[in-house]
Each structure stands twice: as structure tokens, then as C-alpha cells.
């Protein structure tokens, strides 16, 4: 039986990647004053820097900002000005300060699932930023436990499940990322509800999730999440 349902935060409960995409466009505009955008392949260079720096800076706006500065120095060199660096820092600050915008129907969906199951929030990213988003979302009271983690991998999910005393087979994770929310849980023997978001960070696109698994359902909107969780619970009972 299903004993616990986990929810992701960014782009499952509230908007996130839209702000990072807008930040990327602002960053390109700054560098476009010094380099030819097509030749510099700014997006590719920034993504490569973020990949290198994840282990040092972690996920989130602060790591993105530091990677932007590193990329700007590498591409523009001496042409980069103090004003440019200040503008990049401001980009990061605006991402950190953006208001929490809940996705349509998600509050009712979480409440409906919480009426039948224990629910937890498992989100990754910068601790201060995620804490603020959880607080400002107004959803914290619906969750019996809130986990802000540095990485979402099988070891992290195993730790959380061990701490709450739930076997992986009795756990369902709801999220927008196949790589972070679904694949690690399926690998442990749990189940997942995939709720795709309209835009996904490039580093979240590569995954090894078994999308044909009977322990995985995909829904198109938050309103369909409760029924999907109930369907997975029924499959386990059968």
C-alpha cells in the first residue's frame, strides 16, 4: 500500500525555470555587447560551467550567478567591465527575490492527496532560497516533513525513506523532472507521477527513467495528480 507521497517544489508546486530562462536571456544581452552571440555559443559555455561547478556551488541562483561571471570572464576577457559584473550579480539577486507563484490547481491537489496519504516535500537547491519559497508558498502546513536537499539521487531518497520508516515500494514521488523526481525513485522500487513543465533546465533533460514502467503515470495538470496517486495505490493493492 502507499504510505507516503512526496512532492517536488520547483516547477511542480511553483514556477521556477521561467525565471532562470529570463536570467539567461539577460546574461546573453550583457555579453552581446562584447562578443558575437552565435560564435561564442554562450548558452553552451554557461551550461558547461554550471556542470563543472555543481559540486562546489550546488543548484540554484547563486551557483548560476557565479557560473555566469566565470563564463563572462572567459568569453569577454578584458572587455568585461565592472558594470557588466554588477549587472550579472543583479540578475542573480532578482532570481532570488522573485515572488512565489503557485502553479494552477496545485494547492487543491496537494490538499486532496494529503487527505488520504502522508505527504512530504522533497526539493533541492539553495537552502535560503528554498526555505523562503516554502514559507511564502503557503503550503508548508500541508506537509508532514520538508526536506531541502543538495541532490536528488537514490541515496537521498533512501535516507529520507529510512528516516520516516517507509519502504520504497510504498512511496510515490510527484514531480516535473524525470531525472531528479522519477528515475531515482523508480530505481529504488517506488512509484512516480510525472507532471511535465513547459520548460526544463538542460541539466535535467538526461535521464534513465523507465517511462514504460507500470509504477509511473504522467498527468498534464495538477488537478489530475490525486487520481493518479490513487490509481498507483490501486495497482499496488492488485
Structural summary, described in words:
By secondary structure, this protein is α/β, with parallel strands linked by helices. It has ten helices and six strands, in the order βααααααβαβαβαββα. Helix 9 (178-188) links the parallel strand 4 and strand 5. The mean pLDDT is 95.
What is the compact description of this entry?
With 238 residues, the protein is an alpha/beta fold. It has helices at residues 17-31, 37-40, 42-57, 61-76, 82-97, 106-116, 127-137, 154-164, 178-188, 225-237, and strands at 4-7, 118-124, 145-149, 171-175, 191-194, 216-218.
Task: Please bin the fraction of helical residues.
Answer: 40-55%
Assess the beta-strand content as a share of residues: 5-15%
List low-pLDDT spans: none
Coarse shape: elongated
Strand order of the largest sheet: 3-2-1-4-5-6
Could you describe the largest sheet, including whether it forms a barrel?
6 strands, parallel
Number of strands: 6
Number of helices: 10
First-to-last CA distance: 10 Å
Mean pLDDT: 95
How would you summarize the topology of this molecule?
Layout: E1 4-7, H1 17-31, H2 37-40, H3 42-57, H4 61-76, H5 82-97, H6 106-116, E2 118-124, H7 127-137, E3 145-149, H8 154-164, E4 171-175, H9 178-188, E5 191-194, E6 216-218, H10 225-237
Parallel strand pairs: 1-2, 1-4, 2-3, 4-5, 5-6
Helix pairs in contact: 1-5, 3-4, 4-5, 8-9
